[in-house]
Design a protein that fits this description.
This protein is of the alpha/beta class and about 550 residues long. Helices cover about 50% and strands about 15% of the residues. It is built from 21 helices and 15 strands. The protein has helices at about 10-25, 50-55, 60-70, 95-105, 135-155, 170-185, 200-210, 220-235, 250, 255-265, 280-285, 300-315, 330-345, 380-385, 390-395, 410, 420-440, 460-465, 470-480, 485-505, 510-535; strands at about 35, 45, 75-85, 85-90, 120-125, 160-165, 245, 270-275, 275-280, 290-295, 320-325, 350-355, 360, 365, 405. The strands form 4 sheets. Strands 7-6-5-11-12 form a 5-stranded parallel β-sheet, sandwiched between helices. It has a 4-stranded antiparallel β-sheet with strand order 1-2-4-3. Helix 13 (about 330-345) links the parallel strand 11 and strand 12. Helix 2 (about 50-55) packs across helix 3 (about 60-70). The radius of gyration is 28 Å and the shape is globular. It starts with 9 loop residues before the first helix and ends in a 9-residue tail after the last helix.
Length: about 550
């Protein structure tokens, strides 16, 4: 059995079996919900299927549950029990021990799931205006986007990441105006920045650098190239690199935007009002308001350009699914863009994730920041302060749609109070134990054949069962598009390991037991390493 394939994950085996049983017993087609119980005492997987079927088959949930498990359950499970409206299932020791041996024997495969029906997927994120240094909002987007891309790759998809460069439009005009004024000020001219200009001191430094440049490059081209190069360097330092950097300015020259506008007109989805062209979004979805595509002065609205850009993704570049991460002020745009994709034949292919705001908290108080006013906490400043690992972990510590209070003091902490330090310390501690075992003369290579059946202590069994959940946690992250699931899982497994370690000696006098425990913690280490790698966080062997 290939337990690293999607089809053979325990939850999927159980789901298929439950669906077949319901069809056989009741003649009903249903998609069962299978999920891990909140309390490990209630098994490894559970389903609320009896509760959901009670109203349909007119029987009590307990009776339904008993009828479902009257047939032999899948062989990877050793037991099933009906509790109220739930059926709880326990994985067999044979199955979980086989999983542990696979991790030890083929550690390079752990956390990589074979997908026999892979999708071509794009993840677009950050896509900040090239108007200044990247800030902490972009840092959160970089963390969430790159982690989701890693997760989607881990489950066997063909994933491409993209940064949409907003190098056209009013923001760029304003940036160029602000930059030219800074150049004039350095030359000694008495000219002031408008109130709505970019006031950050970074433009003064850029202006000095530009004036020292001998090449005759237009100011707008120079400042865009300079800021974009700095953003790329910052993101690379943050372990976030993109496969494609897509220029809006170049896209506007392609003729694709006009083509999409014509298609919408041919579908009678455009009407004229006060000199502007409007998209009849309410024809497609009555809950979405109509919006402007072409302004009364003939200029393309942001919505039209973005519609054409996403059509390019589906029709020119042939992506099956596109995930786009947008900021908290884009809820209306999300609805409009999804409606346009539906109208143009790409229903349910676009998945927009709204990433909420980040608040920096230091000494219990919120740190204020503004790009235009120049009071800016940049991504580089944050990384210099707390490090890449802590920054990435803390940005993943909440659901994407939840506001995030980033506790700078806790992120700086190098004690077990800091969750990322706590996880990394577990990994480093395991490496130290294995090194100690080698120093004591243990042949660590023998752990591949260790007898795992002798690991009967409650802490050992809890740790084993937590390890084998890792592929399911990855799948759940991909299904829900919630990357916080993985760091939370890693924190839990680190906590279970630390508890095990305080109660049981690994390198003990009983050689068989020592080998088995070394096998166990080796699997823990590989799981932590792989999970941290997906999150873009280092797994240090020493701390």
């Amino acid at each position: 059995m290939d337990e690293f394939s999607i089809e053979n994950l325990a939850e999927n085996i159980l789901t298929r079996w439950l669906k077949t049983r319901v069809e056989t017993v009741y003649g009903i087609s249903i998609e069962p919900e299978v999920f891990p119980p909140d309390n490990s005492e209630f098994g490894d997987s559970t389903t609320n299927l009896p509760f959901n079927l009670a109203g349909v088959v007119k029987k009590s949930p307990v009776e339904i549950g008993r009828e479902i498990i009257a047939e032999n359950i899948p062989e990877i499970f050793s037991d099933a029990q009906v509790v109220g409206g739930y059926i709880n299932f326990w994985l067999s020791d044979e199955y979980i021990h086989h999983m542990i041996r696979n991790i030890i024997t083929h550690p390079e495969c752990w956390g990589k799931i074979i997908n026999h029906n892979p999708k071509k997927i794009q993840v677009e994120f950050v896509s900040a205006n090239p108007t200044g240094p990247l800030n902490i909002v972009s840092a959160r987007a970089a963390t969430v986007g790159s982690t989701l891309a890693n997760v989607l790759s881990a489950i066997g998809n063909n994933v491409q990441t993209e940064f949409y460069v907003n190098d056209a439009g009013n923001q760029i005009k304003l940036l160029t105006e602000s930059f030219n004024i800074r150049i004039a000020q350095i030359k000694g001219e008495n000219v002031q920045l408008p109130e709505n200009a970019y006031h950050g001191e970074y433009l003064i430094e850029y202006a000095r650098e530009y004036m020292e440049n001998d090449e005759p490059i237009p100011a707008m081209d120079w400042i865009l190239e300079r800021i974009l190069a700095e953003q790329k360097e910052t993101l690379h330092r943050f372990r976030t690199d993109f496969d494609v950097w897509f220029s809006e300015r170049e896209f506007r020259k392609s003729g694709k935007i006009e083509q999409v506008l014509n298609r919408l007109e041919q579908k009678s989805l455009i009407y004229h009002n006060e000199g502007a062209k409007w998209f009849s979004a309410s024809k497609i979805d009555p809950d979405v308001e109509d919006f402007v595509l072409v302004k009364s002065d003939g200029e393309w609205a942001y919505g039209l350009v973005d519609i054409a850009y996403h059509i390019n993704k589906f029709e020119e570049r042939q992506f099956d699914i596109v995930y786009t991460i947008l900021g908290p002020d884009h809820h209306g745009h999300k609805a409009r863009l999804e409606t346009a994709m539906n109208a143009l034949g790409h229903k349910n292919k676009l998945k927009i994730i709204i990433l909420q705001q980040v608040n920096l908290i230091e000494n219990g108080e919120r740190v204020m920041m503004s790009k235009r006013a120049g009071k800016l906490i940049t991504m580089d400043v944050l990384v210099d302060d707390v490090g890449v690992d802590a920054a990435r972990y803390f940005f993943l510590a909440r659901k994407a749609e939840a506001h995030l209070d980033f506790d700078i003091n806790l992120a700086r902490d190098t004690s077990e109070e800091n969750p990322v330090y706590y996880i990394q310390y577990a990994y480093a501690r395991i490496n130290g134990i294995l090194d100690f075992a080698k120093q004591k003369g243990m042949d660590v290579d023998k752990i591949r054949n260790a007898n795992l059946n002798i690991l009967t202590e409650p802490e050992e069994r809890k740790l084993i069962r937590k390890i084998v959940r890792f592929p399911s946690e990855i799948m759940n992250t991909a299904y829900l598009m919630q990357p916080h699931i993985i760091p939370f899982y890693l924190f839990d497994i680190a906590k279970i390991f630390h508890n095990f370690y305080t109660k049981h000696r690994v390198v003990c006098d009983d050689e068989r037991l020592a080998l088995a425990r070394c096998a166990l913690i080796s699997a823990v280490a590989k799981t932590i390493e792989r999970g941290l790698n997906i999150c873009g966080i280092e797994a240090p062997e020493q701390m």
